[in-house]
Each structure stands twice: as structure tokens, then as C-alpha cells.
Structure prediction request, 555 residues.
Amino acid sequence: MLTSFIPGAAISFLLASSVKLTVLLAFAAILVFVLRRRCAALRHHVWAAALLASLLLPALILLLPAWHSNTLGAAAAVLASGHAGASQVVPPGAPPIIVNATASSTLGSGFTAGVLVLWFLGFSALLLRLLAGLARLTLLARRAEPLFDDAWMREVLNTSRNYEISRAIRLLESHDSSAMPLTYGLFCPAILLPAGAAQWPEERRRIVLSHELAHIARNDWFLQICAELARALYWFHPLVWLAAARLRHESERACDDAVLLSGVPPSHYASQLLDLARTLENPGRAWSTALAIARPSNLERRFAAMLNPSVNRRNLSSRTKLLIPFLALSLLLPLAALRLTAQNLSGKVSGSVHDPSGSGVANATIIMSNRAANTIDMTTSDRDGNFMFKSLPAGDYEFQVVKPGFEAYKIPQVALESGRDFSQAVMLKVGSIMERVQVTPESSEKPTVIERTNGKVSRLSIGGTVEAAKLVTKVQPVYPESAKSASISGTVILHAVIGMDGRPLSLRVMNSQIDPELAKSAVEAVSQWRYTPTLLNGEPIEVDTTIQVNYSLQP
Prediction:
């Protein structure tokens, strides 16, 4: 969601996009190198597909479902664990307690915010430069006069038919006699000519229109605008600048090939280009959105290519035109869906653990379990009860806090989002006691067997001090004669509260379906038990207890 992209997440998103863009453009550069002997139109098609994919990449990253690599996921878990013993087994038997959790987001550091400001300034500068070029071009076109010369219009119709252009083409004559011929526009394209172009000889007229209409047929102006947008978005990435420059160069080479394929001799074409470059002005940076016929920056390379008879000048087939975008999508979609380590990390996970008196609980174990990724991350609280994980891989986790002497706390599902912090304050409750008593017909003549299942028989230092209750006086339940004669057995489950004086209070039978005689026997015996009080920071407190009395006819 876009609202969750705080500075830290935005930086992570930008870095991940840059890494994926590097792969995309590097693949395009390698493919262009392999195709260096092929026609310029094919190389231009590759660069165009790569730059269009770079514009789609951020949107696809947000929209496509995440694809996680097991290898990258394991690496992310290792890199994200900032504590020792990060992969341990959760201790069994932790009672489930559900608490409500809230995730808090924090603003990024000053450095992170500074990086975002720097990116925005670069993006704004290049975007304003592009808009200024479009505004300058629009103003120039408005000042120009439409050209309706019959010779020019016939040449436009014939060449448009050869290039299969169905759109209407506007011819504009500038008031400046030294302006370079250039093309702009998508749905209603226009060719801007210098003043006096109506008197040009037929050969120059044919060459200029053939070149400029080739740009229109190939939609080069639209692709160059996309390249400028990509350069603004990724202004910090050198491969984007290279791709945009190569796109323009290959577009000029491809249009040169189209002119030569129309039957213009290479020497005549080179002579006309040289004359145009010598007598007319360079469009300049302010017109960078336009496509001029004779830019001096790459004119020498174009001369070498057009005079080389071994250069491949064939047009692209429909099959090839579809194959290149298909390859680009085949690479773009998995790249966009892939979640990299830097992109998939949450912010810090922190919080505090306290006992009922408000004291911090030291050495409590905090467990973050990601069942989808099959990872477990653990840490412990410090002397003040505070804990912290470094960034964990984003995903759904189970959050647990366990400490001997206390009931376990558990949040069944915590959604850690990329770049967002999670904080949780936990209040632990003093753990309840479980007693089990085995009663047989002969047990009244034998020592009582009591199994302490919670292990709380000594003082435990937990933030504040908890001294668990200990059974000091016990009365063994007597097997009722009526139940023994009727061969009735079973388990009586009692719930009680150990009072501050150590007496069982509020005794209650939990399983009402048990035989009443067995329940009565259990209640009479347990009501006479005595415990040492449970102490929290030296003060007695009440604590729950569960007692199971097993009546069995077998010794």
C-alpha cells in the first residue's frame, strides 16, 4: 500500500528497483552487443523495450504478488537476525494467551530523508527540463506557418504510403531560415522545417521527408519521451543514461537505413546531411524532445555506417517486433515479483515485558515464528524488561513471550511490513499451579503421590521477585466405598484460587459429568490443603490453581 511507504520503506523500494533495473538493462546491453551485426532497427527495438520496461517496473513491483526465492528467503533470515541463537526450537507446552498488538511506524533517519530529498530534486530537475523542452517546442510550432506547397504535399503522401502511415502529417515552416528540420508529436505528428524550405531542390526534399517520416512511422518521438521520463526517474543510474543515448543514436541509424532502402545513394545522402549540419543550427538541449535529422553529436558515426556497404539495413519483421517485447516481459515480470532481501525487511521489532506490579521482567524469552518461511527468531529481555530484534523479513509471524513462573503471552498473527517498525508492551500474569493426585483404594494407607507439573518449587528472579506457592499440608483423598463397589473411576478436575493466606478458595468442579461421590471426596480433601502464599516482590498475591484428582481401581 502506498500509505505505508515511509522514508525507510521508500529507500528500500528504490534500492530494490535499482537492482532489478540493473539486471534488466544489463541484459539489454548484452543482447545489443550480440546483435551488433544486425540492423539498427533491431537494436533500437531492444533499447526501447528495456526503457519501457523500466517505467513499468515500479508499478509492477507494487501490483504483482510477491515471489519469494527459498535461497533468498533463507539469506534474508540470516542477515536479519541480529542476535545469537536466532534459530532455536520453541519450548513446548506454552499456554496460548492472545493480546492485541499495534504496529508503530517511525520516520526514517535524517540520512534516509536526505537521500529521498536528493532523489526528488534530481527527478524534479530533469522533469522540469523535459517540460521546458516541450513548452519551447510548442511555442516554436505556434509561431510557424503551415506549409501547403504542392511538391511537398505530394512527397509527403507518397512517402507516407511507402511507410504505411495513416495519420495526418502537418508541415510547418519556421520563421528561422537556419532552424534544423525536426519531428515531434504522436497522434498528430508534425515536421518543422526552416524558412525557405519550399524552394529546396527535389533531392533534399525527398531525403528530409524520408528521414523524418521514418521517425513518425517508427513512433520514435513517443519512445524518446519515455526514455526522458526513465532518465528523470532513475537519474542516478548510469545505465539509464546510456540506454537513452543509445536509443536516440539507433533511431537515427534506423531512419538513415530507411532512407537508403528507399533508393537514395549513400554518397548523396551523406552529402545532404553534411550540408544541413553545416548550414543549419543544432536544435540544442531545449528541444531535446524533438528528433532532428542532423545532430552533430553522432553524425560522424552515421556517415561511417551509411557509407559502409556491408551494414545490415533490413526492416524488422512483424515476428521480430513481437518477439522483443515478449522477451522483455518474460524478464520483467519475475524480476518485479521477486522480493529481494533489502526490499523484504521490516523495521525493528521491539517492546517491553513487565509483571503485574509494573516491574520489568528480565530474561524473558521473546519468540517470533514465521511458519510460512519455517523460521524462528528469538531474543531475551534485558534487566529492565526491554527487548529488540533487528530487521526481520517481512511476513506474518506468531509473537510469544515465555518466562518460568508466568503465563505465556501469544499474539497469533503479527504482520511485519517492509520498512515498518513493530512495538509491543507485554504485561505477564503470574502463572497458575497444576497439581495431580493419584487415588487408589489402597492409597489412604500409602504416602500421597503428588506430581508438580509446573516445576515452581523455588524462588525465581524475574524482573521483580516471584516466590511460587508450595504445597506444605496435604490431605490424601479417600476413595468412596460406594464408587469402589460400583467399579466407578475417573478424574475430578478442580479449580481454586490460592488465597494470600495459602488456603484454597472458591473450589469448583470443572467437569460436572463426573460421579458426585468422587467429586465430593476430592473437594473435601483439597479444601484442607495449605500452601505457602505466592509472593510478588515480597507481597502475597492470589493465584489460580488447577488440581486433577485421578480415581483409579488399579494400583
